[in-house]
From TrEMBL:
Catalytic activity, as annotated: (6R)-5,10-methylene-5,6,7,8-tetrahydrofolate + glycine + H2O = (6S)-5,6,7,8-tetrahydrofolate + L-serine
Main location as per UniProt: cytoplasm
Name of the protein: Serine hydroxymethyltransferase
Residues holding (6S)-5,6,7,8-tetrahydrofolate: 113, 117-119, 361-363
Pathway where it operates: Amino-acid biosynthesis; glycine biosynthesis; glycine from L-serine: step 1/1; One-carbon metabolism; tetrahydrofolate interconversion
Highest taxon listed in the record's lineage: Bacteria
Coiled-coil residue spans: none
Family: Belongs to the SHMT family.
Subcellular location: Cytoplasm
Site (Plays an important role in substrate specificity): 221
Residues annotated with N6-(pyridoxal phosphate)lysine modification: 222
InterPro entries assigned: PyrdxlP-dep_Trfase, PyrdxlP-dep_Trfase_major, PyrdxlP-dep_Trfase_small, Ser_HO-MeTrfase, Ser_HO-MeTrfase-like, Ser_HO-MeTrfase_PLP_BS, SHMT-like_dom
Organism this protein belongs to: Winogradskyella endarachnes
Pfam families: SHMT
Length: 424
């Protein structure tokens, strides 16, 4: 078979883009060589529907071992009693949980998408808002912090079966104990979706959801720095404590419900090559080196937030506790869309993002979301952050001037080009 140069040329072009640019998308990262190697391995050829020891296909002895190692490492990393490493993505992890805990039409209470929540937390364009009855909590207008009074009021009023604690664009730590208090007050299942801060949580840098939340989902590719994928976990003593009437009316072990929510409920064959890559990433995350990495991510985010504030940028909640920040650009007279486009021309990647109480549409937005997980993997330190903010500020001030943007791209390429990137 002839090598498909058309596609490989594009892969190379993407590699160059990743090497030369400043990657600030808060949900992205760069995996290690060994994670990449496993993700591109022969395990992609194997069908393994079912779970280790209970498969629907022969020849699964090797992938059973791989999957068991991934499960055990995930449990150790997060202090979990149960882990399912098969979800193909964060969205599918959440779908499986909804499947296991809810009936269509049941009420859920999630973080408003426009305040920082995720599509799968009840957005009307997503399965979570179509199949279930979504209700929302949000942030306080004056502080940008989660409004826990609103959360409690909404729970009392709406009587949700499931409450979701977690976000895609929230820069502060989450009080999972408070969430649990609210969930208990209405007999709801509490799901923590830690997709974004998972790496920081694994290393004890942010509040731990495991003692408080019935179920925890995460993606594996953001701060956790693994392959693209998802995972579901439960802590000790959380196995089926709910007293809720389960779908079938029978009391089955919650872990069994979650497993069957993934397969056969929501997926077919697991991606064993990705599960191998997850196992390796979890192994990496168990090291002290990863702790130092996560601390650097947080220090970089803090330094970057301070540099933005010094230049009169309006950060939602005024700063960050984690790896990201959400910036309201309205006082800078530029939309999120124009900012994103201009930054791309300067080889700086961010995403436009709605800000709480936004006046623009989701396609335009008033803000951008910025994160430090990927640039920290590239080796940038606190001392580099004010320079990065200077470059961003220069772009936003000259967003319609392509000549200036080209000049900034050269500076960006000079900063990043000499830095090693895994797999290059
Ligand atoms: N949950 C949260 C909080 C997220 O931020 C994301 C991704 O951005 C997801 C779920 C979904 O993950 P995926 O894109 O892998 O489906």
């Amino acid at each position: 078979m002839q090598r498909d140069e058309q596609i490989f040329e594009l892969i190379n072009a993407e590699k160059e883009r990743q090497v030369d640019g400043i990657e600030l998308i808060a949900s992205e990262n760069f995996v290690s060589d060994q994670v990449m190697e496993a993700a591109g391995s022969v395990l992609t050829n194997k069908y393994a529907e079912g779970y280790p020891g209970k498969r629907y296909y022969g020849g699964c002895e090797v992938v059973d071992e791989v999957e068991n190692i991934a499960i055990e490492r995930a449990k150790t990393l997060f202090g979990a009693a149960y882990a399912n490493v098969q979800p193909h993505s964060g969205s599918q992890a959440n779908t499986a949980v909804f499947h296991a805990c809810l009936k269509p039409g049941d009420t859920i209470l999630g973080f408003d998408l426009s305040h920082g929540g995720h599509l799968t937390h009840g957005s009307p364009v997503n399965f979570s808002g179509k199949l279930y009855r979504p209700t929302f909590y949000g942030v306080k207008k004056d502080t940008g912090y989660i409004d826990y009074d609103m959360l409690a009021d909404q729970a009392k009023k709406e009587q949700p079966k499931l409450i979701i604690a977690g976000a895609s664009a929230y820069s502060r730590d989450i009080d999972f104990a408070k969430f649990r208090e609210v969930a208990d007050s209405v007999g709801a299942v509490l799901l923590a979706d830690i997709s974004h801060p998972a790496g920081l949580i694994a290393k004890g840098i942010l509040n731990d959801p495991m003692p408080h939340c019935h179920i925890v989902t995460t993606t594996t590719h953001k701060t956790l720095r693994g392959p693209r994928g998802g995972m579901i976990m439960m802590g000790e003593n959380i196995d089926n404590p709910f007293g809720i009437t389960l779908k079938s009316g029978k009391l089955r072990k919650m872990s069994g419900l979650l497993d069957s929510g993934v397969f056969p409920g929501n997926q077919g064959g697991p991606l064993e090559h990705i599960i191998a890559a997850k196992a390796i990433a979890f192994g990496e995350a168990l090291t002290d080196e990863f702790l130092h990495y996560m601390l650097q991510v947080k220090h970089n985010a803090d330094a970057m937030a301070k540099a933005f504030v010094a230049k009169d940028y309006n950060l939602i909640s005024g700063g960050t506790d984690n790896h990201m920040m959400l910036i309201d650009l309205r006082n800078k007279n530029i939309t999120g869309k124009d900012a994103e486009n201009a930054l791309v021309k300067a080889d700086i990647t961010v995403n436009k993002n709605m800000v709480p109480f936004d006046t623009e549409s989701p396609f335009v937005t008033s803000g951008i979301r910025v994160g430090t997980a990927a640039i920290t993997t590239r080796g940038l330190k606190e001392t580099d952050m004010s320079y990065v903010v200077d470059l961003i500020d220069e772009v936003l001030k000259n967003y319609e001037n392509d000549t200036v943007l080209e000049g900034i791209a050269e500076k960006v390429n000079k900063l990043m080009g000499g830095r090693p990137l895994f797999n290059v």
